[in-house]
């Protein structure tokens, strides 16, 4: 396709801008999803599980609930990939890493998540000092209320597994299949990037405008990394590191809760995190170009 200069979009063909293919992808996804839910429902009935027990199994405050939610999102990502593979007739890898899987990018994203999180924390601390805002990191008694310090190894292990599955599933859907499908229709990367980021935020169903804007920034950051580096590896590592650090600093039930009224400082913190991540992406993209030219 003409006008596409981002490595991640090289697999796109003119035939990908086809309503029947897009509808087929959506139809296959819905069909497989319905079948999967029916199987789960039948299994639940066979095991004698009540609706209350099924709801409790998805409690983000428990290790089991974390893993269940991670597995569900990873499963959705797998279904979307299968639907795209069947509808577009392209290899699965072309939706994930057209340049071939690169472990260094995955690990690079994971490492960059640390300074990105520190930048966000620094901005939050500065706002707290100026405004007197409570960051909510201490309990009523004044002690540090951080899951990382509580020594609950079952929770920590579940957090690692769950956040890895969540990152892979969401990146496959929003920075993999969806970003390429939208780019095929727009014939340009940037409108596809923006719309994919908005949809990524919208599906979380958070009515708070600050939280919505924060997730849009996340979607733009991770989408830009995917476009510039030619695959979802870096974005997946960054996504995983971001979520893992978040729920280790704040209990998962609160960290992932929607509907909270976040202060504007949270948006500024997210922008600081994005600036660190995008700087790293640009440095890596330039290095890739130099290696390719040399």
How does this model look, in words?
The chain has one domain. Helices cover 71% and strands 0% of the residues. The protein has ten helices and no strands. The chain has helices at residues 19-46, 51-56, 63-88, 103-131, 153-186, 189-202, 209-229, 233-249, 252-255, 264-293. The protein is globular and about 55 Å long. The chain starts with 18 loop residues before the first helix and ends with a helix.
In short:
With 294 residues, the chain is an all-alpha fold.
Chain-wise SSE layout:
Layout: H1 19-46, H2 51-56, H3 63-88, H4 103-131, H5 153-186, H6 189-202, H7 209-229, H8 233-249, H9 252-255, H10 264-293
Helix pairs in contact: 1-3, 3-5, 4-8, 4-10, 5-6, 5-7, 5-8, 6-7, 7-8, 7-10
Keyword list:
294 residues, mainly alpha, globular
What is the H/E string?
HHHHHHHHHH
Please, how many helices?
Answer: 10
First-last Cα distance = 26 Å
What's the total count of β strands?
Answer: 0
């Amino acid at each position: 396709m003409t006008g596409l200069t981002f490595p991640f979009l090289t697999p796109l063909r003119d035939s990908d801008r086809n309503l029947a293919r897009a509808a087929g992808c959506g139809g296959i996804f819905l069909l497989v999803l319905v079948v999967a839910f029916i199987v789960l429902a039948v299994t639940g009935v066979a095991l004698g599980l009540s609706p209350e027990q099924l709801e409790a199994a998805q409690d983000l405050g428990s290790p089991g609930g974390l893993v269940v939610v991670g597995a569900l999102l990873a499963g959705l990502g797998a279904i979307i990939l299968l639907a795209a593979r069947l509808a577009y007739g392209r290899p699965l890898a072309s939706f994930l890493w057209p340049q071939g899987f690169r472990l260094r990018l995955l690990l690079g994203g994971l490492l960059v998540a640390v300074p990105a999180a520190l930048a966000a924390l620094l901005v939050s601390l500065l706002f707290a000092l100026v405004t007197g805002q409570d960051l909510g990191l201490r309990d009523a008694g004044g002690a540090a209320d951080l899951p990382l310090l509580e020594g609950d190894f079952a929770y920590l292990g579940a957090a690692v597994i769950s956040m890895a599955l969540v990152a892979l599933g969401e990146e496959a859907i929003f920075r993999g299949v969806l970003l390429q499908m939208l780019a095929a229709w727009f014939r340009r990367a940037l409108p596809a990037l923006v719309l994919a980021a908005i949809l990524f935020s919208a599906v979380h169903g958070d009515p708070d405008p600050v939280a919505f804007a924060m997730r849009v920034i996340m979607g733009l950051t991770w989408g830009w990394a995917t476009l510039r580096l030619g695959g979802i590896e870096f974005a997946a590592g960054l996504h995983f590191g971001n979520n893992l650090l978040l729920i280790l600093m704040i209990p998962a039930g609160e960290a992932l809760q929607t509907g909270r009224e976040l202060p504007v400082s949270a948006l500024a913190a997210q922008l600081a995190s994005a600036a660190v991540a995008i700087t790293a992406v640009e440095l890596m993209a330039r290095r890739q170009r130099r290696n390719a030219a040399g």
